[in-house]
Amino acid sequence: MAFRDVLNIEVAAGNGGDGSMSFHRAKYLEKGGPDGGHGGRGGSIVLRAIEGVESLERLVGKRKFKAPNGAYGEGRLRQGADGEDVYIDVPVGTTAFDEDSGKVIADLVRVGQEKVIARGGFGGRGNSTFTSSTRQAPRFAELGTPGQKRRVRLELRLIADVGLVGYPNAGKSSLLAALSRANPAIADYPFTTLSPILGVVDRLDSHGTPADERFTLADIPGIIEGASEGKGLGLEFLRHISRTRLLIYVLDVTRDPVGELGQLQAELRAYDPTLLEQVSLIALNKTELVDADITQMVVDELAGFGLPVLPVSAKEGAGLPELREAVFQMLPDRELWAQTHALDIESDEVREEPLRLVFREDPPARGVSIVSTGKPERVWEVHGGGFEERITRFSRYLEDAAEYLGNLFKRQGLYNALKRAGAREGDTVEIGTHRFEYFDEDESNNG
Asked: Between residues 166 and 240, which one has the greater pLDDT?
């Protein structure tokens, strides 16, 4: 199975079920009271991080996910069933972006972590909710709201403590194999590593026995000059470096290590300047191919970069114990690192629906704007504040729900806002596709 670390999908949460407009009917009871039940909530789309998946490839072939709708409410106060949530299992390290806004909507870094990426619609309230001292038999109910729809880009960024960074043939795969229990394919040609490979490195005690301390090491495919611009395979895998707590620059002592390190850092800077702020060290590899004087000369030249330089030979094992111990000593604390590198995830502005059969009073409207359209007649357009959404939820019963909506909008401050804007008795008010006549209660009472 091919490695895949980017995938575009479409998700659609379920719609909320409509509330029921029903009246109790029974033998010997000609006119029973309203008993319409509430609609169920629509199912949501949820990302869930699991272990044992090394690629997004398992999702290929299914690019669209749809959650079921909530069921309609029924008479006798029967609540409609909620739609089941749909879970999409992804590898740990998956980040989800909203394709339209570009915002991060999920960042899953722990096994079992879940995040709703498309929230199901709310169920509508049945007519039993809308009774009052003056409204004994409401002939309207509330419709459910639509579920959220999104185009989502999934990106897999490997969760590894340490990342090996270097050009092809620098010996990264050999170094990974020598330090850890991984067995990567090794050959002497560019881009041997086509997929990131993870290994586990144990800390050894004085007797060479593994201690209770370890880190994960990722061999990230070789970078070529221009990788940050999409050349070669580099851009496809640069994102994996951002997850690591420590970088090891692997340089071949027989080539131009000073020049290559400068080029590597230039590529990282072009992709993400913060990568150069990560804790880093240099592993000067293949020292078995040159004499000690040349190795020391190169070490002195690399010292100008301000990073620790450790000469090693992955082939013969020279310098590996010192490299392993240096990493353990320099590796930042995982919890502190996570706090300082947390992604800015889009906040979920949709509040949880109150408990079944218990509904809060509608809050005052926020962010409403009222503008005059300049039409021949006096027309006032209302935008924001949730008024259009509220009307839509009663669109099937607008005539019967007019009194309720009028009182609701008055409580939410719409009438006062219209009056402040200059509306007068008889003016037309537009909310979405609906038109109403403005009624000034104070003016009518004074007349």
From this structure: 166
Binding residue ranges for Mg(2+): 173, 193
Could you tell me the domains of the chain?
Answer: 1-156 (2.70.210.12), 162-340 (3.40.50.300), 369-446 (3.30.300.350)
Q: Phi, psi (5° rounding) for residue 42?
A: -75, 155
Annotated binding-site residues read: 166-173, 191-195, 219-222, 285-288, 313-315
249 has which bridge partners?
165, 282
Convert the pLDDT of each residue in 215-227 to its tens digit.
888 887 666 555 4
> What's the whole-model pTM score?
0.77
Q: What value does the mean pLDDT of the chain take?
A: 84
In tens, the pLDDT along 184-211 reads 544 333 334 456 677 888 887 776 666 7
